[in-house]
Amino acid sequence: MSAILTRLRLRRAGAEDKPAEPAPETAGPRTRFGAWLGRPMTSFHLIIAVAALLTTLGLTMVLSASGVYSYDQDGSPWVVFGKQVLWTVVGLFAFYLALRVPIQLMRTLAFSGFAITIVLLILVLIPGIGTVSNGSRGWFVVAGLSMQPSELAKIAFAIWGAHLLAARRMEQASLKEMLIPLVPAAFVALALIVAQPDLGQTVSLGIILLGLLWYAGLPLRVFVSSLFMVVVSAAVLAMAEGYRSARVQSWLNPAADAQGSGYQARQARFALANGGVFGDGLGQGAAKWNYLPNAHNDFIFAIIGEELGFIGAAGLLCLFGLFAYTGMRIARRSADPFLRLLTATATLWIMGQVFINVGYVVGLLPVTGLQLPLISAGGTSTATTLLMIGIMANAARHEPEAVAALRAGRDDRVNNLLRLPLPAPYVPSRTEALRDRLSRRGAERSGKPGKGKGTRPAKPAAKQASKPVRKQAADGRRKGKTAGGPVRAARHHGGGRTDRSRRRALEGQRYG
């Protein structure tokens, strides 16, 4: 009995001397958060969650900011909000279709879609077909609903440009071959939008063009020259018309015409200042009572700052920051060069609009009329933005790890709820794979000979090595021998099969 008690005392003393091991629950939240970020479907869940939050916040703020304007125009405070809800439903339907569309079908229809939008941009300029609003003939009005074809042109151009650059990059095309179809087509679309005129959509399409050129990996001098041309064109357009020139002058000198061209920007800053840190409360803002023109549209960020305060405005910017992170994460993890280029360009385009809109509301930029994506009242803008985010969510489902997880039967609640089809793994087409192999072989054959003695170029050596093999094989067939030529020939071709299988395996690892 005493021996047992002694052992128990020794064990207890040893346990007390040992340092306490951390419990599994004490593992830092950073570890759990990192594990969650490493899951295959994290990008897909993030992009859907951010889109849902932005859409909900946008509808709420449109309802709060548009009541007075709707009552003045139509006698009902629900008109603008009702149209926004209708276009949001259309955008959600487009979002769902973009989730289900096969990537190859999207690339096949890219040029046709862009050509159709060019036709729409021409039709909207014809009097009697296009409708003038705010000094711009850029809308189709059908049954009281307005549609802006320039919004569709931006998406069509982004998809076609990403398809074109991704395909030609794999074909090892020259710089001229990559720029000639893309840049002239962009200038045609830009000229038609300038003819409306619409400076905001022109700047937005210019951002898409610059994003495509930058993420395609074109030389820096090409990108800088393109950026210079876009900046010069924007400056010329800004000073060409009287009202745009007045906006620029009021931005440079806000006190010069405080009751004229600078009135809107001045009232927006007053609304932001009145909000303070915590705001006046949702629906309690004063600027929307005809003190701030277009409060529900271009200057809705000022209403957010007034009613939700600095906390609400900063939270909205954090949501857009999370959207930017998610978009670039999808682009970085995509194996398909088309999806990688399209997702990165779409992220830059949407964040560029956010920067411009918030910039002119707070006074950092001159007023251009670009809307805040998913937040401002604007039917076509909301629907097309949701369509683009749906394409980004589709790209998130086509990440190699996500494809492997879904095709392995791993359960995902969001995919089951939306009844989405299984994504197909990225496999380069036969033409792309053949051109890739031919380019590698050409690089190997054109390589410089080694420095050792007796080193010869690859092509003559292969020819000299093949002649004895063919001769020995022919001698073996004539003499009926099984050794020599036939055995060596089989060994030679077997080595070729091994190289081809190894190359195919490496291609599978490369493309997921």
Automatic annotation (TrEMBL):
GO-annotated molecular function: lipid-linked peptidoglycan transporter activity; peptidoglycan glycosyltransferase activity
Annotated InterPro entries: Cell_cycle_FtsW-rel_CS (IPR018365), FtsW (IPR013437), FtsW/RodA (IPR001182)
Biological process per Gene Ontology, one example term: cell wall organization
Basic and acidic residues composition-biased segments: 432-447, 496-512
Subcellular location: Cell membrane
EC numbers: 2.4.99.28
Feature: compositional bias, Low complexity: 457-467
One CC-aspect GO term: plasma membrane
Pfam short name (any one): FTSW_RODA_SPOVE
Region (Disordered), start-end ranges: 430-512
Enzyme class: transferase
Substrates-to-products reaction catalysed: [GlcNAc-(1->4)-Mur2Ac(oyl-L-Ala-gamma-D-Glu-L-Lys-D-Ala-D-Ala)](n)-di-trans,octa-cis-undecaprenyl diphosphate + beta-D-GlcNAc-(1->4)-Mur2Ac(oyl-L-Ala-gamma-D-Glu-L-Lys-D-Ala-D-Ala)-di-trans,octa-cis-undecaprenyl diphosphate = [GlcNAc-(1->4)-Mur2Ac(oyl-L-Ala-gamma-D-Glu-L-Lys-D-Ala-D-Ala)](n+1)-di-trans,octa-cis-undecaprenyl diphosphate + di-trans,octa-cis-undecaprenyl diphosphate + H(+)
Domain of life assignment: Bacteria
Membrane protein topology class: Multi-pass membrane protein
Pathway entry: Cell wall biogenesis; peptidoglycan biosynthesis
Keywords in alphabetical order: Cell cycle, Cell division, Cell membrane, Cell shape, Cell wall biogenesis/degradation, Glycosyltransferase, Membrane, Peptidoglycan synthesis, Transferase, Transmembrane, Transmembrane helix
Keyword Protein transport: no
TM regions (residue ranges): 46-69, 81-99, 111-132, 138-166, 178-195, 201-217, 222-240, 299-326, 338-362, 374-393
Family, similarity comment: Belongs to the SEDS family. FtsW subfamily.
Its biological purpose: Peptidoglycan polymerase that is essential for cell division.
Name of the protein described by the UniProt record: Probable peptidoglycan glycosyltransferase FtsW
Organism, as annotated: Mycolicibacterium celeriflavum (Mycobacterium celeriflavum)
Gene name of the encoded protein: ftsW
